[in-house]
Amino acid sequence: MAWRNWLAYLEGYLILTISGDDPEGFLNLALAQGISLWDITRSRSGSLQAKMPAREYRALRSLARQSRCRVRIVDKRGWPFFSRRLRGRQVLLLGSLFFLLAIYLLSTFIWVVDVRPENGPLRRVTPDQVLAAARAEGLKPGARKSALDTRTLEYAMERRLPQVAWVGIRFHGTRAEITVVEKAAPPGEEAVDRPASIIAAKDGVIKDILVINGEGRVKAGDTVRQGEILISGLILPPRPEKKPGEAAAPEQPLPPPRLVRARGIVRARVWYEGEKEINRRQVQEVPTGRQQTALIVQTPGRRYILKGPQQPSYTSYRQENKVVALPSWRNFTLPVELIITSYYEVQVRYRQLSYEEAVSTAGRQILAELKEKLPPGASITGQKVVPLTKPEDEIVRVRAWVETEEDIGQVVPLSGKQ
């Protein structure tokens, strides 16, 4: 029924009143000749009201004479009559189109950015810090939604905010919502005055150590393992020195050890290691310049192709989808999306890398992966790539090292032997 109403609106239809001696006879004659009538109702005065296609109205004149009835048009509805009314109101039409276009264009931008903590209020970061990190990555009021990749933004913000464990970004119309999950604070970290020691967070060779508070347990050049104490929060009292020739004095009880919160900077040389494999037979996709575009309307459970092919005619192609969602109002979002799918034809070519090219490519890739794992503040002091396979092998494997200089100190509450 809904489809019939839309078709009637596009073709144009009339609302009629039928009065006279025999309105029922008029209906019977009209139906016998195949004239479409629907929504037929009777009024208190005995006349009938019905709807019919505008193109069939001329056929009613002879029927009205035969049944001695009078047919009067009450209203004209549908797109043909509406478009005629707009012909004399071009300014109104242009204004409406401009308004709709402006609403659509404004809905493609982000105008509000909110921060929502996942588990209670934020403690290790502030909403302003989260918004600053988002702004540095391009997520800010006025940014175009189509230019933002949420997955890339989430990873970039996690790197900028080491205090958070997870960042999620969702778009609700013109509003971007950033969900933040903080890392669990180590026991006692929030108590800044609680006694604690600084231990090595990873293996390394000590480069410099600056003790601000506490007792240093290592020196420059020492090799340390993860978990080893670097600066202890347990300060032992010094033993009295005995001067030469001086008689031994009776032993005095030593004052008890002092417990402090260790503070300091311990920079060390740290090495990161990884391996990478690469096939010397590389597959390349070269665009030919030909493309096809499909316009698709996506509703829950159904897809309607308005324009373009259902499947491209290319043997090899690259597909890109652009989703245009209708603007939402408050918390209501229409479950309809417009999908613009572009198919780009490509030619598949194969290239055989030399042994040196494969080693260089694998080395660049593994070095880039290792550098992605470096903590903030780490400076690279050296890097090395060593091949592990022979020149005649089809699969090339390399091992890489990245040497950094970084602060490896980690504060832990004072417990156990120090």
From TrEMBL:
Organism: Moorella mulderi DSM 14980
Lineage: superkingdom: Bacteria
Protein name, as recorded: Putative stage IV sporulation protein YqfD
Pfam family, one: YqfD
TM annotation in the entry: 91-113
Keywords annotated in UniProt: Membrane, Transmembrane, Transmembrane helix
